[in-house]
Amino acid sequence: MQNSPPVPKLVRAHVFIAGRVQGVGYRYATVETASQLGLTGWVQNLPDSRVEAVFEGAREIVEEMVRWCHVGPPAAVVKEVLVKYEPLEGLRGFDVRR
Length: 98
Fold this sequence. Notes:
The protein has two helices and five strands; from the N terminus they run E-H-E-E-H-E-E. By secondary structure, the protein is an alpha+beta fold. The protein has one domain (10-87): Alpha-Beta Plaits, CATH 3.30.70.100.
């Protein structure tokens, strides 16, 4: 009997990014990066000048995306990234929320 390859563990990261992250293309760069990585979820600006995002996918890929959030697009200045892992919702696609 053949062993099937291990199924990657799927996770959901709920991320809050603080710093100069609004008005610098952060949301659109997040959508582009997450989509290229094959993640699902969403990203939005918050009234307190932070950006909030949710990423769902294989653990290694989600962790790579969270590392990207610490840098963001070239014009961003990221001061803090808070991450909470939550139960999966099974999201489809990756959107900008308003």
